[in-house]
Amino acid sequence: MTQPTFDTYEDFWPYYVAMHSKAATRWVHLAGTLTGLAVSTYGLLSGRRRYLLGLPVIGYGTAWPAHFLIEKNNPATFGHPAWSLRGDAQMIRMMLAGRDHELAEIAAKWLAENDGS
Length: 117
Fold this sequence. Notes:
By secondary structure, the protein is mainly alpha-helical. It has helices at residues 9-18, 23-46, 54-71, 81-96, 100-113.
């Protein structure tokens, strides 16, 4: 599937969420991002600079396989890297605030309006 193009982040956001339509994909993202953030923070605080790679390596290393294996799609990062990073942060904030059900609704609406593509 070719990724659509967007003029604004606000237009991109529902697409990003739709690419994470399955709860398992979102939760793998959450776990990978928070684990990577913890490892990177440890590296920053301990002076062990190689651990700063924790966020991108662990974050993407868990998220990308989730797309291929659970969601059966390509990560939005491939076509929209900056907006995807922002979307990941927004998605995780919503999940941590107990709003995962809203993400499922946004995804379902976008997929229905775009024939599931």
